[in-house]
Automatic annotation (TrEMBL):
It comes from the Eukaryota. PROSITE patterns: SLC26A, STAS. Gene3D superfamilies: STAS domain. It holds the Pfam family STAS. The keyword Cytoplasm does not apply. The chain crosses the membrane at residues 132-149, 169-190, 239-260, 328-348, 360-377, 397-418, 455-479. PANTHER family: SULFATE TRANSPORTER. InterPro entries: S04_transporter_CS, SLC26A/SulP_dom, SLC26A/SulP_fam, STAS_dom, STAS_dom_sf. It is found in: Membrane. One of its GO terms (molecular function) is secondary active sulfate transmembrane transporter activity. This is Solute carrier family 26 member 3, tandem duplicate 2.
Amino acid sequence: MIPPKYRQLTVSRPIYSEDLFKEEYEKVQRHHKTMLDHLKAYFSCSKQKAKSVALTLLPIASWLPAYRFKEWIVQDMISGVSTGLVSVLQGLGFALLASVPAGYGLYAAFYPILIYFFFGTSKHISVGPFPVLSLMVGAVVNNLVPTSINATDVTLNERRVTVASSVTFLVGIFQLGLGILQVGFIVIYLSQTLVSGFTCAAAVNVLISQLKFILGISIDSPSGPLSNIWVLRDIFTQLHKTNIADLVTSIIIMIVVFVVKELNDRYKAKLPVPIPIEVIMTIIACGVSYACDFENIYNVDVVGTVVEGYQAPVAPDFEVLKNSVMDAFSMAIVGFAIAFSVAKVYSIKHDYVIDGNQELIAFGLSNMFCGSFKGFAASTSLSRSAVQESTGGKTQLAGLISALMSMIVILWIGFLLYPLQKSVLASLIVINLKGMLMQLREVPYLYRKDKPDCVVWIVSFIASVLLGLDIGLAVALGIELITVFEQEGVKIFRCPSPIFFANIDFFREKLTAAVGFNPLRILRKRNKALRKLKKLLKKGELQVTSRGLVLANAVVLSESEDDLNPEELDKPVNCKDFPVEINWNDDLPANIQVPRIYLHSIVLDFSSVSFLDISALKGLKLFKEFIRIDVNIYVTGCDSYIIEKLEQCSFFDNEIKSSIFFLTIHDAMLHIQETHPQTTRVADNCVQYNEISLHMRNRENAVSHPNV
């Protein structure tokens, strides 16, 4: 073959004007649907559509009939009990963040799961209190019911519970409304960088709010901008009043829990389930506090009487609803964004689909239900979800079992928590902030690789710490849009447009839709099929002959895939130790089914892509998924700035190479013709060119033109 630098191309075609081109070639017309067409389609009814809508709105009707009872029930029970123990403690602790009595946190750990069990689409997230959301609820509570008002403790607590439950009900209304309006895509405007800076700032806010419990001092809980500064000022002025019993208990709890959690992480492959150190330390601390009478001798602040049983539903306070509209909307967006991000991680890992709009509906109904029964806002906790998934949870049945653990505490054993120090709960909250606080390590990386994203992170963090989470989120969104729309050389509204956090998911979705298959699913199917073939070959039930692979006798393959590691399935198909070459488009023995694909190359025109951010670089790892199923990716017309940025961010490796970039589409097509001479005849066939619009406001596909 002639070396690349000596190869030449000659373009020979008529000179076309617009009129001459229209005369020679017929224009492909596309029917654009009107608003009336959309309304007719939306309100039309048929048996098939009714069934589809029912299954969409009630996902349990899809997965429950397919539940593998014998294989999954034990794992779901173990996962549910493990998650439930953590959920009870987090419910009690996060109630402190919400500024309500600890017992009401058990309601927040119970009610939302009951609704999500029926309406949610994620199989692995643990629904319930989340520290960021609880802190935002607490800010509203402290603003509307400050501790400085003249009221008895009972009356004050009742008013705080009313505010927390009312704002939770309003959060649910917003989420339900957004879900009905099908605007689940709104989370794309919260980039990974913004969410990282925001959640790290929220962790700092949580840490500051818990210092008064760890030190055992009594201070007011101001709200609004600069409230953290006033809290720190009050803490330092009253530092001499520190309760030594609370401080020593907190230090011991944090050290022991930190060490055991590190051991859990290090030896997670050897441990059947993580050591429930939070539960163990809580039981010990509760017993020691009771035996030594810490409440009376050392004057420590204890949980006290935990609300027993369930209370009748109550209507929300309309005065609270009127005064907390913006706060509730911020909470609705943040709660959904966090939950959807976590759910998306597990859906990709375990290869199933989640529906953003249905998740909004599920969380909306969950929060409305929870608020009606005096609970506070729910989302999902990263640590609880990790426990539910890592201990083998297969479905939301594990979540339902975890709710039963909360019910047991509410109905029968809540009184045992009376002597538990609030400093113990505060310590457990603080030690579980490690993951969010460690996001500070992203700043040096962002500074080296993408300074605009670094600015977004820093502004998001500082604004949220100083101005409060609600105002901080608004400021972060504004800065994020400014860094995108004012970036030098960026043409945001060109078609196709720059690729960044707000449209990378849309790009991936439309690219996979254009080729007609999901490359990751094809890859997993092939790896599963290869594993089955190797097992048959090892058992002697599959023989290699001149005609290929032949079964020695009839074989029935088990459908169980519990022993398969999802991470292994995402690796390239390794057929090196297989005796014959596998043609994945041929019939495979033992009725092993793998989807056939007849596409071998994809050419992407990046001539108008003048900007990429970190989120886009991560999303473009989609290239690797195509390459691993023998579909070559070629990128044309790419700006030198983009290529330099890809090199700086270590985008290229042994799979994605710089050689896939070509100057023009014509260069790439001639290269494909040389590498696939038998399947590509450019002169005889029309190559379909799908132009994908990444315009942030217009999300329709551009018209497909035949490129002659």
